[in-house]
């Protein structure tokens, strides 16, 4: 038993099967750890479902499982990532996120002190984002049937009137904008896994983008497409949009922002940064005549300070994403090399 | 590679790490398996978030991870359970479920044919319930870091005007109703695990209860509490309500419906059926004068045909749940024996 005087022993205890059993041990874990750190008026209702009122209108809902390894990494951990990742998916509809839910799958034997660190980090990220975790669930699997902690978060958001953001709205002539440097998250994770040391530590860019999106939507309500280039990086994301909308794209390699450290690490590790995951960046497509205004709005926000126009949507029945390279040539940014890094989010 | 002529090889292939990589393999899996079976106009939008309109009013949101072992069991599988479990959590607010999301965590090496069976079962359950899966997510973990398939579902529902269902509304004098026999789900799972054979196969009661709830709410809009006795069974659920509302309860053992087979199996396995999980039953608390009307409404629905009034809410600062036994005595239905069966849902 991990109970000391009726309180669970956070400092010394470990997750055991009773924490998922529906009995008193689970109730104690929920009270002493999850509710204690994540508390808000809706979560505190204490029912199996969260109750709240919404205005009439268009909502979006998105869900994301998080299985990142290692659980703690430079610039974040699975708790903050689970908040940011799902908030960003909601924001990529142009929406304002309202609520989050969290489902935990814990492995027997995982240290409760580490779980508390994760939940505290989650609570901090949710608070900073202004979006509460309103309901949750905990399951426990036997040692060797999981990997510490998996967290699946779901977000609900409301779409402002007049905003219609969708991949199928990509159209020839539109500008392609990127909110900042690429590859930070993936390289941070891999450096940690491989125990690589660089002159300065490379941090994940994990961040909640809905504040940036709100500024962008206010400046250019007609934004056609928003997408966060997570798994598979900028390459996979743009290829997916191109296929969905039956268009092509041409990128300008020189315009794509990248940190020198990240660039050097990619070279060392044999990674193409276009395929490396980001967790705090977005791609935006808008009419060419709106591009400068959108860029200005992005640069006015801390998370878009290094934003750039990186390319143009083209007419192309083959849906190719191409890139003008530094040497004056053009190469195809293929979609096949999808999996560079497993469990990056 | 699990690709044959550009299609994933469902019959012979296995989940591999590329299916979670964000590249083409993942896109193919989503298209050929998830979207193919779960398709509906919202899911078919193909964005990372699902967009839909809701009427003004009160919504509920609930999330549930599913880690059941074995994945296929008599009366269902993890796919149908993941739909039913979350629909029921939403319905226990008195709400009408509108939408579901699903996050899959797959273990490398899991047979794609089995995954397809699960997704088909999920699609069938969602269709029967009239609630579409509108967005989802897939992650893959290395062999030995998961256990086949975990599914976290989140549900969104709308609460009818005038309905206020919440555990804290439990009050002395209220009647406690149960919608049918207890223990079916837990015993079905354990029989399968232990390879026990009974004269007739014991099936899980896994079912979506929102249709029953709609009838109940229509008959008695003033229902105080609804709760589905899943993990920890009727005992844990009633103890949780008693503690939340600071009341006691007295149950009548003879009134609690149970199948003879389930009763026999519990005796054989040394289980107290009050602690065994159900996945298609609910407990309801309502004013004593409404109890007969509520009972009649429940019995008029196929999933409530064997409903019964099983007890009364009492004033008790110790929040004890007690039971009048067949021998004329009274015993305390404690909350400590929470974990009887791991990974029951």
TrEMBL record, chains A, B:
Domain PurM-like N-terminal: 46-159
Transmembrane residue ranges: none
Pfam families listed in its UniProt record: AIRS, AIRS_C
Segments forming domain PurM-like C-terminal: 172-318
One record GO biological process: protein maturation
Family in the record: Belongs to the HypE family.
Record-linked NCBIfam families: hypE
Protein name listed in UniProt: Hydrogenase expression/formation protein HypE
Species assigned in the record: Oricola thermophila
């Amino acid at each position: 038993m991990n109970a000391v005087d009726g309180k669970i022993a956070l400092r010394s205890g470990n997750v055991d099967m009773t924490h998922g059993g529906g009995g008193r041990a689970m109730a104690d874990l929920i009270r002493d750890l999850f509710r204690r750190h994540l508390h808000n008026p809706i979560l505190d209702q204490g029912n199996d479902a969260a109750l709240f009122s919404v205005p009439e209108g268009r909502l979006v809902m998105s869900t994301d499982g998080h299985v990142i390894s290692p659980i703690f990494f430079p610039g974040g951990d699975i708790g903050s990532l689970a908040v940011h990742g799902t908030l960003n998916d909601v924001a990529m509809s142009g929406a304002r996120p309202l609520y989050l839910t969290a489902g935990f799958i814990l492995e027997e034997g995982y240290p409760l002190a580490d779980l508390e660190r994760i939940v505290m980090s989650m609570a901090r990220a949710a608070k900073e984002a202004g979006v509460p975790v309103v309901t949750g669930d905990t399951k426990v699997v036997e040692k060797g049937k999981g990997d510490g902690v998996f967290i699946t978060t779901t977000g609900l958001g409301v779409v402002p009137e007049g905003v219609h953001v969708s991949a199928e709205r990509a159209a020839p002539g539109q500008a392609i904008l990127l909110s900042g440097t690429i590859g930070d998250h993936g390289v941070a994770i891999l450096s940690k896994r491989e125990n690589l040391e660089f002159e300065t530590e490379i941090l994940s860019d994990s961040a909640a983008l809905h504040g940036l999106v709100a500024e962008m939507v206010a400046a250019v309500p007609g934004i056609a497409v928003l997408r966060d280039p997570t798994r598979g990086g900028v390459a996979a994301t743009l290829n997916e949009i191109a296929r969905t909308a039956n268009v092509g794209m041409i990128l300008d390699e020189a315009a794509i922002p990248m940190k020198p450290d990240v660039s050097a690490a990619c070279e060392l590790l044999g990674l193409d940064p276009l395929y490396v995951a980001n967790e705090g960046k977005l791609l935006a497509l808008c009419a060419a005549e709106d591009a400068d205004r959108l860029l200005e709005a992005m640069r006015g926000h801390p998370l878009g300070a290094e934003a750039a126009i990186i390319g143009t949507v083209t007419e192309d029945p083959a849906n190719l994403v191409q890139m003008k390279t530094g040497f004056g040539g053009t190469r195809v940014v293929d979609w096949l090399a999808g999996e560079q890094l497993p469990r990056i989010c």
